[in-house]
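Reader question, answered in our methods column.
A reader sent in the components of a multi-part assembly and asked whether the whole thing could be modeled at once rather than chain by chain. We filled in our standard form and ran it. Here is what they sent:
COMPLEX SIZE: three components
ENTRIES:
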Amino acid sequence: MRFIQFAAAVLTAIFLTAAHAPAYEAEKEMLFEGTGDDELRIISTTDIEVFQPLIEAFQKRHPTLTILYVQASSTAVFDAVTTSPEDHFDLAISSAMDLQTKAANDGFAMDFGSSTTASFPPWSRWRNQVFGFSQEPAVLVASRDAFIGMAAPGSRPELIELLRTHPDWFRGKIGTYDVRTSGLGYLFATQDARQSDGFWRLAEVMGSLSPKLYCCSSSMIEAIESQDILLAYNVLGPYARARIKANGNAVIIPLSDYTNVMMRSVLIPTQATNPQSAGQFIDFLLSTPGRQLLELEAGLPPLVPNSLNTSDSLRPIKLGPGLLVYLDRLKRKKFLEEWENSILQN
Amino acid sequence: MRFLLIEDNKELGRAVKTRLSLDGHAVDWAQRISETDAYLDNAPYDLILLDIMLPDGDGREFLKRHRQQNRKTPVVVITARSEVSDRVHLLDLGADDYITKPFDFSELEARCRAVLRRHGGSAQNEKRFGDLLFSPLAATVTVGGEVRSLRNRELRLLEIFFDSPGRIYPKSQLIDRLFSYDEDVSENAVEVYVGRLRKLISGSSVQIETQRGIGYRMTEK
Amino acid sequence: MSERIKDTGSLRRRLIFQLLVSVAILSLVLYFTVRVIAERAAETTQDNILGASVVSIIDEVHVVNDQISIDIPYSSLSMLGSVTDDRVFYRITVDGRTLTGYDDLPGLENTTSDTSPVYWTENFRGSEIRLSTQIRPMFFANQTHLVAVTVAQTRNGQALITSRIANTAAAFGLGFFVIASGLSWIAASSALRPLRRAEQSVQRRGPQDLRPMTTEAPREIVPLLLALNSFMDRLRLALGRTEDFITEAAHRVRTPLATVRANAEIALRGTKDKDQRKALRAMIRAVDESSRSASQLLDHAMVSFRSDQIAFEPLDLAEVISQVVTDLSPTSDLRDISINWQVTARPQINGDKILLIGAIRNLLDNAIKYSPRESEIDITLDQAGETCTARICDLGRGLGSDTEETLKKRFKRGGNAVDVVGSGLGLTIADEVARAHGGTLSLKPNQGKGTCVSFSLPRLS
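And here is the structure of the entire assembly that came back:
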């Protein structure tokens, strides 16, 4: 009897997998088995390891729920939500605020509201469709020995100056996002460009020093730790903090001119088949135990409503239609052209 | 009593004159106001019976004139109007009393007697018959100095006898005159009153004779 | 026979209802007006922002290297997010071809070169959106091209503002309605109060009161009251004429009756025959009865008629009684009935002398009629507090089984009075006079035998 069931399951799996090729490219996948038939399908840009404690804690509350967690790039997440409804993802978690906003703006997100979501400030959500749940700054990470004999830079202008005056030291030892492929990288870069034209000068300077381009913050941190690079610019702060070992090689260099803060956000795609569980997960994410887990286990700083007012240099990226601008085809084309011109000088 | 009847209606006038005469009264009948002066100047009357509805010059005018002329003869008005307002008016005009037609003749006589008593004419004050002194006004008889009071019907009975002393009054007539027509009265009732009257005049020279089968009369012993 | 006037509903209620309807209509008009104005205002606000967004984009359209170049400013879309959470769509076209933005965003039908901003509403991707477009002609590649920038937004935010204002408007409308209703109620009640006063003054009239109305009344009612007065005048005149007619008729009947009676008495005197006597006495009794009936009928008519023209004057009730007693003494003497009447008090009353004489006379006449020979009638006059009471007690046959009320009703003869001449109106007359003077008439058995009639009137203080 059980053999038949198993065989049926396997055949079904093969059939389903063969029947439709997923439109997204998954980097990783993990299935958290539940005792019942209900399934919660999550597609996310966040590393599985980071989110695992939260998934497990949620499942303890809903043991009958089977949770599928698919990790993919931000563009893949966006594509899955907007172009492949047959995937039936119930939740889309992404650090690319602009893509999440566009997905909702273009009508691919479901309305959700609860007393929990209502208790958070209005700027932390958009249209009751996109919900921010963390505050993550973009930071400069450096190797401990990066600034030997130099004064560590306290601002971008100082960094630019430093790079200009020590080109040989830093040549080939600087890393940053490849904004052409990384949604988060693009977001940070465009927000940088918004803040000041100093970004372009920094880009030029960095570009003249043969920078290395990475897909993700984790790789940048690894590269610092393995001493491939001395500096990594626009690294996601929490990832940095989580990955930097106590006596490890890397340190975070605070920059006083400005620091972009992004919100990791979640939405319920219109293709969702289990929106109730999806809503419950969002509530869990925003709840006190969820936030505790987020902070302590996932290492992601949860949303604190007033914290952003404490420092002048913190620049939170706001959810809203403004984010659509840099997603515009022409605008993006122009930006990337300029960026390539600056960063890819050789 | 001597009446001057002023009545324009021939039938009624004739009936009244006849009826009053039956009781021994003297009645002169004037059919028009214009005739009255002639009658009044000619003879004295005890009483004037005036029917207030007269063709020429309302009886009211006569009353007014009568008053103005200061004639002493009392006037009893016969009126068809029973309203209180009219009666009061008549009294104000100078009538001494009034009676509404159709009227009971016993009541008429009673009223006339009352008027005369009020008038207090000396002629009416006291009557004598034999040694009996009868004061209708005081409702007393005096027998040998003793003054005796008369009750109502006794007074009226004696008045009837004194009207025509010696005359025989049949029982039936006395019943008619002493009792009202709505009283069911037997002939014995008259006997009772005659008996009472006899008691009252006992000791005087006057007696009331019973004429068996005929009636009663007052005579001197 | 009474013709009822159909009640078509309260005038006051009607007035209030109509006022309320008007107020309700006004409130609704107010609400909808405010709502429309709010919608317009919100739309204008949205339009203004959309227009600003379009302008900020279109200002960044340049010709660079003989090519069209557009740098959408961040603020052009972020400004739209500052006010509401509406979804945003945009499209930039050159000569109708999409340069960038949402391809399927609707554009203007007619391609004019009018450069003023245009606003309109459409459905797009399942939602209603508000669009703003501006056209700017640009010269490049040896030609003039029309660049159109369209920015659109869903209307949720606007709807929210509108509904918020509409709710406030609704609250105002409701408040207005409630207050106006209250005021309408007050106004209607107060406006109709003079009507009520006129109504009350009509109601206060006694059933016989035919005097003309002298009350104050609002202009609309004046014609009605004047008609009422004229009606009452005519009625009074008619009654008066009827009165006169009756009196005349009665007189013409009485004189022949007097003749009949006189001749009957004459005939009675002339016969001793028992049967004849019986018959003649019966005749006389019949004549007396008809005469008394006529008198009482006329008396009653007089009392009824006179009650609405009561000439009130201060009177001494004792004097009235004395006059009546004197008047009726011959009648009572005829039956050997003594009337015991002593003046012990002289209470003053406000009354009509004629009516009172009529009433007392009827009562005393009754008493004399129903008393046996040689009995006594006691008349007393007492005063106690606010009233004075004349009491006439006889030793007659009493009330029997008749009640006070039935005796007082018209034409009712007491069951005891079968063989006694008299009609039943005496008590009715006295009762009406008493009531016209604000007093009462009551009957009681006289301690076993006979009746006591109490005639009470309010005293003049």
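What stands out: Chains B and A do not touch (no CB pair under 8 Å). DSSP finds nine helices and eleven strands in chain B.
Send us your own complexes using the same form.
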